[in-house]
Amino acid sequence: MTSMTETESVDVLIVGAGISGIGAARYLTVEHPGKSFVVVESRAAAGGTWDLFRFPGIRSDSDLYTFGYEFKPWREKDAIADAPLILNYLHETIDENGLADHIRYHHRVRAAAWSSQEARWLVDIDRADTGEHIRIRARWIFSGSGYYRYDEGYTPEFEGRERFGGTIVHPQHWPEDLDYEGKRIVVIGSGATAVTLLPALAEKAEHVTMLQRTPSYILPIPRQDPLANWLKRRFGDERGYALARQKYIAQQRLVFEFCQRFPKAARRLIRKVNASQLPEGYPVDEHFNPPYNPWDQRLCAVPDSDLFRTIRKGTTSVVTDRIVTFTETGILLESGTELEADIIVTATGLNIQVFGGIEATVDGRPVSLPDTVVYRGMMLSGVPNFAMAIGYTNSSWTLKVGLVCEYWCRLLGYMDDHGYDTVWADVDPDMPTRPLLDFGAGYVQRALSTLPRQGAKPPWTMSMSYYKDRRQLRHGDVADEYLHFSGPARRRVPRGTAAESVGA
Question: Among 12, 156, 375, 414, which has the minimal tally of Cβ within 10 Å of its Cβ?
Fold first, then answer.
């Protein structure tokens, strides 16, 4: 038996010290300065994705005017930024808001049990630094842990993998001492990570090949935005950042809507841009012509056309084919071609894991995520005092997280004003549902059966529109007929829980 030491009792426990968790902590500090909270982080440092991934060239795949927080201007000149700049921005946010003393590192949440009678979460945590097993009591849990596994990336089974005599690397676990200078490298994949790696590796490698089964839509964008930088010079960091942010929000939405409404025209336009960036006679339709419509999966951005520039120089190439087997010296393809390699990089995606794999119960009843429905994109039906941050797939992640945090803080204030300590959302069991994310990416499709679901209409939809969410989360009513509240004066519990009999 392992001993369990109860260490703290807080109003809010925030899971994850990445961009979502740091943002939630800042909103809570400003909007509810009297509430106690801790941020638990399983790793040894803050920053989430931007501290975890160390592969060459890692950068944002959307602009920092919308990927950054609304409350903190992005002061750098680059709109598309490298990881060190983003990490510095996050650490500044921690320092400027006095969050460092609230963060507990090496704390991995293992289980969380809600007690309706106590109106508390009992959260069991493993401490990797001391080997202790501790428990924290919390009135609320805010999950800012993202949606993928931090300890394991996705790698499909490759025939003959054990035969390969070189080095195989997954970008999620990039060795700091990997020497790739003068080496032949094959990067398997065609997503954002692959198109980032190619030009970065090409600076030292002999040659880098991107091996893809299916092409992606790839668009060149400027690393710096002259208009955004002019706005900051003209109006100052605060106002200039706000104006640039609104410009990018509108721009992202227009591009998405255009691609959705006029997919054929969007496909032709993207192809024309690609062809203009590639060498004369390049087989554009073989390597840059996906079988799906634009924005059925996320578009890949390449700042200052860096990928296309390396293709023109001949330091990188793209091969579209299927893998038969790894060999001693490379990869044999269905076409009969063998790609020789010293290093193979499996940029094959992520493993989705919502809420960090926490085992949750409500009054002794296990929470089955596929049996829950999202409420306003930030709560789960039948799960009290639990909020989550899942950002947009068609726009910058942080845009959604900011609105979620605003609504969450409004909800906390509403509960305080009315003497409530518990809230949960009830869904009509006969309401039709559909998958949580309408997104064709492989990492999403592999995990849909394990995720919560969404309904057919608000507030049960996982909205991907900033403007709609702004109306609902920032300006809409806090409470509606689907939210149920409870407090010391009249204790109620969610339907279907083991403790339902104690409630009215």
Answer: 156
Q: Which amino acid is at 224?
A: Q
CA–CA separation, 25 vs 29, rounded Å?
6
The model's pLDDT over 209-241, given as tens digits with 9 standing for 90+, comes to: 999 999 999 999 999 999 999 999 999 999 999
Task: Return the half-sphere exposure (C-beta side, CA atoms, 13 A cut-off) of residue 72.
Answer: 23
List residues bridging with 301 in a β-sheet: 219
pLDDT for the residue 489: 76
Neighbouring C-beta atoms of residue 91, cutoff 10 Å: 18
- Per-residue tokens: 81: 């930024």
The pTM of the full predicted model, rounded to 2 decimals, is: 0.93
Beta bridge partners of 207: 184
Residues of the chain scoring pLDDT < 70: 1-3, 439-443, 496-504
330's torsion region: left (phi>0), alpha (psi -120 to 50) or beta?
left
Please say whether the dihedral angle defined by the alpha carbons of residues 472, 475, 481 and 482, taken in this order, is positive or negative.
positive
Residue of 285, 240, 36, 16 whose CA lies nearest to 148? 16
Q: Give which of 162, 476, 445, 192 is closest to 326, Cα–Cα.
A: 162
Q: Are 222 and 79 in contact (CB under 8 A)?
A: yes
Give the Cα-Cα-Cα angle 116, 17, 57 (nearest 5 degrees): 145
> Residue 82, SS3?
strand
| CB half-sphere exposure, 12, CA atoms < 13 A | 29
Amino acid (1-letter code) at residue 396: S
Q: Which helix (H) or strand (E) element contains residue 240? A: helix 226-261
Which segments of 177-217 are extended strands (E)?
184-188, 207-212
pLDDT at position 502 is: 33
Pick the closest to residue 397 from 61, 37, 26, 34 (CA basis): 61
Domains assigned to the chain: 5-150+351-502 (3.50.50.60), 155-224+232-348 (3.50.50.60)
Residue 40: φ, ψ to 5° = -105, 130
Paired strand residues for 344: 168, 186
Q: Is-contact 212 362, C-beta < 8 A?
A: no
Q: Residue 298 carries which DSSP code?
A: P
Contact between 48 and 16 (Cβ < 8 Å): yes
132 alpha-carbon distance from chain centroid: 29
Q: Say whether 123 sits in a helix, a strand or coil.
A: strand
Complete DSSP assignment for 399-465: HHHHHHHHHHHHHHHHHHHHT--EEEE---TTS-EEES-----HHHHTTGGGS-EEESSTTSS----
What's the CA gap between 185 and 164, in Å, rounded? Answer: 13
The span from the CA of 276 to the CA of 288, in Å, is 12
Handedness of CA 252, 256, 261, 264 (dihedral sign): positive
pLDDT at 153: 74
Question: 164 Cβ partners below 8 Å, 6+ apart?
Answer: 326, 327, 328, 329, 330, 341, 344
